[in-house]
Amino acid sequence: MAYNKFEHFQLERKLANELRATTPEQRKTMYGKVYNVLFSTFPELAHNLDSTEDDRIGWQLKLAKRLYDKNKIFMEIGAGDCILSKALAPHFKKIVAYEVAESIPFIEGKPDNFELKIFNGVDMHEQPGAVDIIYSNQVFEHLHIDDTEPLLKAYHTYLTPNGTLVIITPHRLTGPHDISRDFTKEAEGFHMKEYNYKEMRDLLEANGFTKIKAYIGYSKWGYFSVNMSFLIFLENTCKRFKFLRKRMKTSSMAFNLFGMKIMATKK
Fold first, then answer.
1. CA 66/CA 48 separation, integer angstroms
2. What is the pTM of this model?
């Protein structure tokens, strides 16, 4: 059966509403359930068949390159089919990849220094100080809002002293960024909440992270750090003007500027 975007939207919205209504204990099984239902119903979503490998991970490799260290352990949260983890494996001592959806097929060619862990979206059971880098791309916005602080605290525990947390998440001003984008003005699918720079900075500081840096740039050129206070000033300015907010949703420049790529250090 051919993929139908509206049917995808209807299913994802239904599943997302079920997830929003859960208790913390229920979410230990619900995260995996809803994503497995979606990917089983629309298997083409798991591999982004309309995108090339370079489209999917080329820009991520440029961002992550500054972290390469063959003495360090890299942990990816929400690894999907693990295409990024496989590409990073030669550059780190070990790769640990967490994923909630068992229905996503793993790519071929599993590296020797790679470990895949299917989890419930909450419990990771890593030892304190076990990993040097935690990498979360397009995951934070999928978390139930009641789970964000407990997970940030867990990430802080798992990291080595001065370890690095990388969070890549879409900015609310250019959204919604889930399947809702073609149908509604606000995120109603699996994006439980889309954030801005100030919210992310405040959350990270409140949960033991410091040296918080944002990176902007372009996939073909690379990325450079920008002062967070400057970006917060920009987002506050844009929020005041409706015509700017409307243009931001279709501007590639706005996507590059406000697509949040944040690195923070364990205090």
1. 26
2. 0.90
